[in-house]
Amino acid sequence: MNDKHSGICAGRLTAAEYAKNFADAHPPLNRTQALIESERCYYCYDAPCTTACPTGIDIPTFIQRIAQDNVRGAAHTILEENILGGMCARVCPTEVLCEQACVRNTNEDKPVEIGLLQRYATDGYFAKPGAPLFKRAASSGKRVAVVGAGPAGLSCAHRLAMLGHDVVMFDANPKPGGLNEYGLATYKTVDGFAQKEIEWLLSIGGITVHEDKALGRDIVLDDLTRDYDAVFLGMGLAGVNALGVTEPQAKGLRDAVTFIAELRQAGDYGGVPIGRQVVVIGGGMTAVDAAVQSRKLGAEDVTIVYRRGEEAMSASGYEQDWAKKNGVKITLWARPVEILAEDGAVTGVRFARTAQANGKLTDTGETFALAADMVFRAIGQTFVAAPAGSSITLKDGRIATDEDGKTSHPKVWAGGDCRHGGRDLTVEAVEHGKRAAIAIDKSFRA
Q1: CA–CA gap between residue 72 and residue 352 (Å, rounded)
Q2: Under 8 Å between Cβ of 394 and 400
Q3: Partners of 336 in the β-ladder
Q4: What whole-number distance in Å separates Cα of residue 103 and Cα of residue 108?
Q5: Measured by CB atoms within 10 angstroms of the end CB, which terminus of the chain is less buried, N or C?
Q6: Is the pLDDT reported for residue 136 higher than 50?
């Protein structure tokens, strides 16, 4: 599909170029590499890497099992704490979590490659799973509704099933997986890995998934709390923040999250239209993913524009460097003031230069414009509270909970991005779901 009114078009590259651009961005370790890397671990007592892991994986133990060539044992150590350990090995910002805490950093400039070792172990297990690692306990007779089949919901459902409870999941999308299926760059998770991991997770039994079922549209929280013994809310963030300027009805102005989701579901990357000149407004992982994938689709000029400095960007330094290596320019200290359009199509964005003064962001008075035929909003998402109803207390626009995810409603827990206080990380959402499941089980046995 080509747009005659702008530079937006599909099929900019050859089939071979698309295949190369959207291949696995970070190839896995082979057996020799994994064994050598595992020997670099000091196997620390009270290891700081384990403390830094949101799910509390015993990292020295799983690495030691790799060194012993015990891939199944290594995978078990990972998956018993993080049931989505395969995906987290691909997308978790290990460089600012476990690897940053690695004691090798105090003596060398290179930590143990924990993320790659985690992927080696989980990929090795999934390739030859053998007997199930986890089994269901005897049936408790309790039924739990889980709203949202993303990382938090899947983690909660699996742990509940292990504990003997029956789980019914409801998800608004055609496929389960949440951000793992719809919100990650295509080159981070190739060969349909998200669905393969979910298929394995569901194989424990006791979990029924209903797709295309949205809270507030197809199901109501009052009905769930009446019909089930407990409810877990893990539906993520459905709202997309506006730019704060007048947004014309113009071709080429898009939400980055929608673009990423469409690309993930595309059977043919050559059929995905992209502009020649692309501007991405935002400073997080979504901005980087949208910008890099624009380049990989054949966009000639791609710029990320962020209103503050590099250190304030929520995208890690590693991700910022990845964007630059892929030809993306990053412009700092600028905010959008006008979307430029002509004949119903985007032509560019006018920005105001910004600065920090007395702890506040201010305009310097200088403006500039960037030409663009495609502009992506990537300035964050918000929780849409209406479907959850008034019985759930919010804090700063997200669901308020205790440490175990318990909400103001006695039968409702919550976790993941919709929960207040999180860092919007897949690995943290997994921990939220696991902890909530344990708390729900405890409430049944009280």
Answers
A1: 55
A2: yes
A3: 351
A4: 9
A5: C
A6: yes
* pLDDT tier, 294 (very low <50, low <70, confident <90, very high otherwise): very high
CATH topology for the 240-381 domain: FAD/NAD(P)-binding domain (3.50.50)
Strand partners, 406: 413
Q: What pLDDT band is residue 6 in, cutting at 50, 70 and 90?
A: low
**What's the CATH class of domain 31-127?**
mainly alpha
Please state, rounded to an integer, the average pLDDT across all residues of the chain. 95
Closest by CA position to 142, among listed 167, 170, 165: 165
Give the phi and the psi of residue 372 in degrees, each rounded to 5: -160, 140
What are 44's two structure tokens?
């620390």
Instruction: Note the pTM of the prediction, 2 decimals.
Output: 0.95
- What single letter denotes the amino acid at residue 273? P
Terminal-to-terminal C-alpha distance of the chain: 59
Phi, psi of 61 (to 5 degrees): -65, -45
3-state secondary structure of 24: coil
pLDDT at 4: 42
d(CA 363, CA 367): 9
Mean pLDDT of 350-364: 95
Angle at the Cα of 310 from the Cα atoms of 307 and 316, rounded to 5 degrees: 115
Q: Where in the chain is the domain with CATH 3.50.50.60?
A: 143-238+383-445, 240-381
User: How many angstroms separate the CA atoms of 299 and 9, rounded?
Assistant: 10
- For residues 238-254, give the mean pLDDT: 92
Task: Give the dihedral of Cα atoms 79, 84, 89, 94; nearest 10 deg.
Answer: -90
* Topology (CATH level 3) of domain 143-238+383-445: FAD/NAD(P)-binding domain (3.50.50)
pLDDT(329) > 70: yes
Amino acid at the residue 135: K
* Cβ-contact 124, 134 below 8 angstroms: no
Phi, psi dihedrals of residue 192, rounded to the nearest 5°:
65, 30
- Asked whether 193 and 201 are in contact (CB, 8 A), the reply is no
Q: Are 234 and 418 in contact (CB under 8 A)?
A: yes
Q: What tokens does 350 get?
A: 């006018």
- Cα separation, 263 vs 328, in Å, equals 18
Cβ contact 91:63 at 8 Å: no
Residues forming CATH 1.10.1060.10 domain(s) in the chain: 31-127
